[in-house]
Structures are given as structure tokens and as C-alpha cells.
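Quick start: what a row looks like.
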Amino acid sequence: MNHPAAANACATPATYRGPRLATQSRRLLPGLAICALLATAGIALGEVGWLQTHGFSALTLAIVLGMLVGHTVYPRLAAASGPGVDFSKQRLLRAGVVLYGLRLTMQDIGHVGLAGVAVDALMLGSTFALACVAGTRWFGLDRKTAMLIGAGSSICGAAAVMATGPVVKARAEQVTVAVATVVVFGTLAIFLYPVLFDLSQEWHFIPGGTNGFGIYAGSTIHEVAQVVAAARSVGPEAADTAVIAKMVRVMMLAPFLILLSGWLARDASKRAGHDGAPAGSHKTRLAVPWFAFGFVGVVLVNSLHVLPSSVTGIATTLDTFLLAMAMAALGLSTHLGAIRKAGPLPLLLAAILFGWLVIGGALINRWVPALLG
């Protein structure tokens, strides 16, 4: 005769896993629903002609909507919605970064050539290094905020800021401040770059005509949407080249995150060594951004052109939705008091980086192609 206690002892954890998962799912639903509604609204607004023309992407609009709701009705819903909002800005963000690779192929590198890749790499490295040095030494900003502003300015705007946040363990307010700087100066670039093109046509400081200017725009403007808006004002040929140059720059996000994670772990180990123990004796866990490897894998698969265009289209749409949900969650979690406390210094740092992107980018785009023939 089977004893009840024996039956319970033989029960596996899987016996209870179903109800537990169902309970967890129910806890996530309110927050996920709010983020999904805000993401849908952000994507719909992103289709408005005037907003498209001025480079306001669905991601930017989603975070703005999140902040509006976060400071009005959301506080009354936060207790029930918190788990789903946290899930959106963590798990859904990583899934969105992985699927972002469907927008890229290795063939994109061939379209801009070695010179285009070198220009992108130099702009990324120099801009991020300037952000770290100027942000922490000149303006006294905390290192995480400086890094986030540097990532957004040097790679691909809000998406880069969001992807870098988990690696540097940033707070929601720090991420939002960095995203705000991308919006301000990326929008300014939309109006400035057509003027720069006219000046270049007269003074020839950017070689290569419209193609050369397209690489310049793609290697120096923050957001993909802002690149498209600025380059379209120059012409379709410039827009095509600018988008390709920008996509190659976006492709550098994965190695950037991996290198940054390794550098932060090594730096933490050195700092721990200053406590009295020999340097290196404190083992610091490397926060490997595994989603970056997923991003690379998706790019490689997409480069083989084995996926039907219908599947790629659906997945790209899903990716935009996931990233918009993550941005909405970030907006809901952001407190304006913390942003006001940050003061004007983050904006000043972003202004210096923008100046480097415009002037230093012009110099690099002029010299690198000449040196590489």
C-alpha cells in the first residue's frame, strides 16, 4: 500500500512547475499589457508623416509616451504592473537586440568597402573614448551615464543605449538621460546635414559626392531614422549609401558590448586589488552579454538569405514591437526628479560629442579613404 508521504517524496519539481509558471505569467500580464499598448501607440505615431520627416522613431515616441503615463496614471498601477514592466525592459529588450540582426547582412560590409568600415570603426572608438574621458574628468559625471551617452552617440542611438544599459548595470534614469541626448542632437543633425552637404558641394571637404556624403552621414548621425531623414533631404543615392554605412556601424554593437563587458570586469578586478590584496586576486565575474552573440548569429543567418522575405518581414516587425515595449517600460520606470538632478552636464557632454561627430567625422571621412586608396 502506497503511503501518501512516499508519494509526495517521489513527486518531481516538474509536478508543481505548471501552476507556478501560470502564476508567474499572470503576474506579468498587467505590465506587459500596458507596455504593449504604449508600444502600439508609439509605432502608430511613428507612421505620421511629419514625425517621420523629423526623424522621430517609434522607439523614441514609445519612451516619451511611457514617461507621460509614468507620471500620471501609472503610479496607481505600479504595484500590480511592476513585474511585467521589469520583464519588458530586461528580457524583451535582449530579445529585441537579437532580432535586430535581421536588418543586417555581411554583404552590407562589402557595399561600403574597407574605407567605410574603417571610418565607422574610428568614429565609434574615438567618440566613445571621448565620452568616457570628457564625461568623467571634465564634467564629473558618473561613469555609467558617460558610457551610455557615448554608446548612443557612437553606435546607433537609443537602441545602443538600451543594449549597453544591462552591461554597465545602469539605472532607468541614467538610460533615459542618455536617450534624451540622442533625441536632441540627432534631431538637430536632420536639419544641419543638408546644409553641410551644400557647403561640401562648394568647398569639397567631404570627397566622393553624394555617395561620400552618404557614408559621412551614416557614420556620424545617431539614430537610423535620423540618418534616413537627413540623407533623404540630400537625395536617394545619398540615402541608400547612408543607410548601408549606418547598418555596418550598427553591426559593431555586438563586439562593442563584448569588449566593454570584458574591460569593465578587468577594471573592477583592478579596483578590488587596491583594497590591499594583490591585483587580480579578486575574481570579478565577467558579465557576458550573451544576447550580443545571438545578435551576431542572427546577422550570419540573415546573410545566407535562407529565410523567406515574409518571415524576415514579420520578425522585423516583431523586433520593432519588442524594442518599443522595452522603451515604454523604461519610460514608465523613469523619474523626472532624477533627470533634473542630473542637470545640464549630460547635455553638454552630448553637445561636445556631436561637435566631434560633425567636425572630426568630416576629417576622418576625408583622410581615411585617401589613405586606403
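That is the whole record. Residues 14-46 form the longest helix (33 residues). The CA atoms of residues 66 and 328 lie 5 Å apart.
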